[in-house]
Specification:
single chain; mainly alpha; two-stranded antiparallel ribbon; 10 helices
Length: about 220
């Protein structure tokens, strides 16, 4: 079913029977994801493996910075916990501190979120890469693995059922993370994204295609 390949990703992942049962609620599982500080040893090992994978898939040279930023996003003791806007700004700040030749994930400086030609509401833009990594991490943790496990979950559930589950789950997460504006176009984004292995990034790309400034590499969250 996946149309693109990522080196080193195994899509034949064995999932727990609970995850594949009819009683498993993906939306609830993602919503109840424990804070990093509250995870068991086994949960933390799973989480760390997912974060490492997402940092490597992001294409950022300093994967350590990406790993730290993702970890903080899911840590209730962090100032950027569950906050897409603050976490993106923090990631850019850390990358800037690491390199004098810093290149933002945005392609433009974060201060350029105000349209130069006309006055309008302040625009908050989240990198497609960052949004994709966050979605993959949350969904992956719920099903028990990285993008390979997510794809295995989709295959086992069937595309039609997976579409319903992912649409509901992504919609609720975006609302919880402060991106309510995007909720209305999640369904169309998920439908297309299910055809790709890196589903989180593809969902973000499809949202980018449907926002106020389409296909510019980041998503307007409000």
């Amino acid at each position: 079913m996946a149309t693109e390949k990522i080196d080193g990703i195994d899509t034949d992942v064995k999932l727990d029977a609970e995850v594949l049962s009819d009683d498993f609620d993906l939306e609830e599982a993602v919503a109840e994801m424990p804070s990093v500080s509250d995870m068991t040893k086994e949960e933390r090992e799973l989480f760390d493996s997912i974060i490492k994978e997402q940092a490597e898939l992001s294409g950022i040279d300093d994967v350590g910075v990406m790993e730290e930023a993702l970890t903080d996003f899911f840590d209730a003791d962090s100032e950027t916990y569950n906050d897409l806007e603050a976490s993106q700004q923090e990631l850019d700040t850390r990358l800037q501190e690491e390199s004098e030749n810093f290149v933002s994930l945005y392609k433009n400086d974060i201060l350029q979120t105000i349209a130069p030609k006309k006055v309008e509401a302040f625009q908050v833009k989240i990198s497609v890469k960052w949004a994709g990594a966050v979605l993959n991490a949350a969904i992956g943790f719920a099903v028990g693995g990285g993008v390979g496990a997510i794809q295995s979950f989709i295959i086992k559930k069937g595309k039609r059922e997976a579409e319903k589950l992912f649409t509901r789950t992504v919609t609720s997460r975006l609302k919880a993370w402060g991106a309510k504006k995007l909720a209305t176009v999640v369904g169309a984004a998920v439908t297309i994204a299910l055809n790709y292995l890196d589903i989180g990034t593809q969902i973000a790309k499809q949202l980018d295609k449907r926002d106020k400034r389409p296909n510019n590499g980041y998503v307007d969250i409000y």
